[in-house]
Amino acid sequence: MAELRKIPASEVAFHSSKKDCWLVIDGKVYDVTEFLEDHPGGEEVLVYASGTGDATQSFEDVGHSSTARSMMSSYLIGVLDGYDADAQAALKNKSAASRGREASRANLDQGWESFTLVDFLLPLLILAVAVVSWYMLTFKSPPSED
Length: 146
Ligand code: HEM
What we know:
Elements: E1 5-7, H1 9-12, E2 16-17, E3 20-25, E4 28-31, H2 43-51, H3 56-62, H4 66-71, E5 76-80, H5 85-113, H6 117-139
Parallel strand pairs: 1-5
Antiparallel strand pairs: 2-3, 3-4, 4-5
This protein binds protoporphyrin IX containing FE.
Protoporphyrin IX containing FE binds near residues 55, 58, 65 and 68.
């Protein structure tokens, strides 16, 4: 396969309209102008994502199918100049890890919020019933037969 053209971000920035729309996804540059009308998610989102300079996150957030991913190669026109795939992967892993931490912290907070009075009283009630039963059985023995 021929080496892909290296396209500077400044050039990509010129192509973010309905008549001329390029997208950067994972450091690759796609010319989706012809695809705008056919995109199942609508053309507006593509033009908007194009204007942000990097559509990777929005593309991934949608959870595109493998069919969508295999379509991409027909629109590939080059790679983003200066794109560091390793640095981006590290960044992605880092943010995924911190998102995980945030989520578990949120769960913890939510756990405390949903702790109601019943959660306190029920164990106390069970303990009280147990103590009273033990007391009755131990000290209040039934009257003897004789
Ligand atoms: C070359 C790039 C892209 C291609 C080839 C593509 C292709 C597709 C395809 C085939 C679908 C139908 C559902 C599926 O098969 O997953 C779809 C849906 C969609 N896409 Fe894209 N897409 C691209 C980029 C983007 C970007 C950058 C965004 C976000 C800004 C986006 C947003 C959406 C949305 C919102 C849907 C609708 C999802 C739904 O209603 O279930 N797409 N796309």
